[in-house]
Design brief:
2 copies of one chain form a homodimer.
Chain A: H1 2-34, H2 37-44, H3 48-54, H4 58-78, H5 86-103, H6 105-116, H7 123-146, H8 155-171, H9 173-178, H10 187-205
Helix pairs in contact in A: 1-2, 1-4, 1-6, 2-3, 4-5, 4-6, 5-8, 5-10, 6-8
Chain A binds a DNA duplex (18 and 18 nucleotides) through α1 and α3.
Chain lengths: ~210, ~210
Amino acid sequence: MPEIRLKKTEIRAENESRILKSAERIFARHGFRGSSMRMIADDASIPKANIHYYFSSKEKLYRRVVERIFTVWLEAAASFETSNDPHAALHSYISEKMEISRLYPDGSKVWANEVIHGAPIIHDFLTSALEDWTNSRIVAMRRWIEEGKIRDVEPRWILYMIWATTQHYADFAHQIETLNDDKALSINQWQQARDTVFDIIWAGLEPKD
Amino acid sequence: MPEIRLKKTEIRAENESRILKSAERIFARHGFRGSSMRMIADDASIPKANIHYYFSSKEKLYRRVVERIFTVWLEAAASFETSNDPHAALHSYISEKMEISRLYPDGSKVWANEVIHGAPIIHDFLTSALEDWTNSRIVAMRRWIEEGKIRDVEPRWILYMIWATTQHYADFAHQIETLNDDKALSINQWQQARDTVFDIIWAGLEPKD
DNA sequence: GTCTATAGATTGATAGAC
DNA sequence: GTCTATCAATCTATAGAC
């Protein structure tokens, strides 16, 4: 009965996707413990028991959500080229990170929430992919410094500054909107913010003549 | 019986202080919903029922914790002088914010956690004190721009950059330590990070000649 | 002011009919 | 694959003895 099995696979894919999307939104808004399976089920318009049918436990569902977020992060990470043009590499990376904050703020919030609480569930992500990536970029930035392409600044503080500033626009969106007359940032404001973030950081790295 | 009343007052002050300190640590580590009154009671070595005796409900205890954090924030806010020396004002403010991240990371985490989740409990802080303070500093920075003392950059993106970067060292401390061979930053590293944050931001604001 | 016992509500998870 | 009913654990909060 190949037809029936195909259909079941499609139903599974469709439902899993709907649940993951709702879970990301609910976890972002209420945190892991503050989110109940019932809230996620209601948001996805799927009976609560079915969430357990597709994802055996709340923790496994949460981990799947974080894995999705990490995939998005990896795509942005790739845009930080270790070529020999720091201006282009940093501009591309910062722009990409700001776009992620604008388009997927929930993912950023779940990640922030997890790290704030000591990364009890995703610690392995930090000590593997993130650590490798960070060290490779630090090496690249050190080379730029030796070649006189950027100023002599400890690379890791620059990376933290980029992460902090770009992710702030997602994680603290509520505060930013409150200070913006309770309105979300307009496209123009997003562009201006993105350009300012890059301009300030680049002004601090650009070699003085 | 003035003696007995005095002693009771002292006991109350002592116990309330112990509970608030434990609550801040537990809330920072596990979030509001992830923290139970039992965890806070155990951390403070005080019977669970007594927490309810001193603070009528979990939410009121949480609010008292956030009020304490806001007091610390206000002290740092005062160090951002609206005088006519932007270099001194920003250096003082950034240094103060970095010190807060170093000395009171738990408070910063509770605040971040709250804003990430849409500030359900502290929304009034955002729309009163924080909004007033922010607007006053934006006015001051606009004046600096008109007087040619800093470059023409939208002040609010600068403020967000300062908040994001300084608070990142508290909120994402776990990630930073993981990338630092699982060790907390040394005093030297804190100083270097603080100086770098200021230098980069000032390089982007300092008028070009 | 301290502390045990417990009420009342909510939660993650599962059993079992359809 | 869907969904109702329900269990067992946990939580906030309080009553009441000391």
